[in-house]
Write a structure and sequence with these properties.
22 helices; mainly alpha
Length: about 325
């Protein structure tokens, strides 16, 4: 352990060298150490690496950016508090993300977004990261940019999902334009994983009052209904996300949104029931709750009987 400590200390001290070659070599070695040796991560943090790594995200060298960003991602696995307490770290990540279409390498952007996702596992970090509007703006811009690699889009979506888990962040996300690119990815994402991840963010962002108008502008309800249609080939996870989005919209989007969801009526009952029967435990619960909301909209009781839905909504009635 002492040998590892000395090695970490030496490599970190070299990050301040006047020689670019020495700095780059040290960055590369630190990246490998943090990837392959879990014990070394805390030692590298103790040696003071994080400020140097954050500063390197501003470098014009793609290789240096990539090694620094990947090392930060590796450190975030076990040293989240150390990263969050480092002054300027989020600003450096924001810089790398903000230049995703110019001076930042795609790999560095992906690692930075993944680092945010890792940090957002901690509940108390969500409002802190969510208060950084420039970070949210840059993540949204990655979704909008037509030349963004799929890996960048997936990592941006996962970071946005983590941010959206905190209620107060959702209105900021809507304000910064997250809804149109999310629905664009849902409709033309092409890759099943992208559609699943995008619809998961949609489901979370739906849980705020500001979402009602934003959804209306992109015909969001219609898209969610299409996702529930078996004919569209949606995965079970995507269907559950659509149910969750409709439920959150009904609960948090205001009276008009709630009425819009209720007005969907009998047209989607069988699709929601399918999720209530075949979904995950969480998906089943949300589908049943959504069925109850729709049933309160004045649908003919015979419709529920015909679809045998009473047993789902009132399992103890028999």
């Amino acid at each position: 352990m002492e040998v590892k400590r000395r090695t970490a200390s030496t490599l970190v001290s070299r990050l301040s060298s006047v020689s670019e070659q020495i700095r780059c070599e040290s960055l590369s070695e630190l990246r490998l150490m943090t990837k392959n040796d879990a014990e070394s991560r805390s030692l590298i943090v103790e040696a003071g690496a994080i400020p140097y790594l954050a500063e390197t995200l501003y470098s014009s060298s793609h290789a240096a950016q990539e090694d620094a960003a990947a090392t930060l991602l590796n450190l975030s696995i076990s040293s989240r508090e150390a990263l969050m307490s480092t002054r300027g770290l989020l600003d450096a990540i924001s810089h790398a993300l903000g230049h995703h279409n110019s001076s930042s390498s795609a790999s560095a952007v992906q690692s930075c977004a993944a680092t945010l996702h890792s940090l957002l596992v901690v509940d108390e970090y969500r409002p802190i990261i969510g208060s950084k509007r420039d970070i949210i703006y840059s993540l949204v811009d990655i979704l909008k940019y037509r030349k963004s690699p799929q890996r960048s889009i997936k990592d941006a979506l996962k970071a946005l999902f983590g941010i959206a888990l905190h209620q107060s962040n959702r209105s900021t996300m809507v304000d910064l334009g997250v809804i149109p690119p999310l629905f664009s990815l849902v409709v033309v994402g092409g890759h099943a994983g992208i559609v699943e991840d995008a619809s998961a963010v949609v489901a979370q962002v739906a849980g705020c009052e500001e979402s009602e108008l934003a959804f209306r502008r992109v015909s969001g309800l219609g898209v969610l209904v299409d996702l529930l249609d078996s004919g569209t080939g949606s995965s079970q996870r995507t269907k559950e996300n659509a149910v969750s989005a409709l439920l959150n919209l009904a609960k948090w989007g205001g009276d008009r949104a709630a009425e819009d969801v209720k007005d969907l009526g009998s047209g989607i009952l069988s699709e929601i029931a399918e999720v209530a029967v075949n979904g995950s435990e969480k998906g089943k619960n949300k589908a049943v709750e959504l069925l109850k909301i729709i049933s309160s909209g004045g649908i003919d009781g015979n419709v529920f009987e015909d679809l045998n839905l009473d047993r789902l909504i009132n399992p103890c009635s028999e």
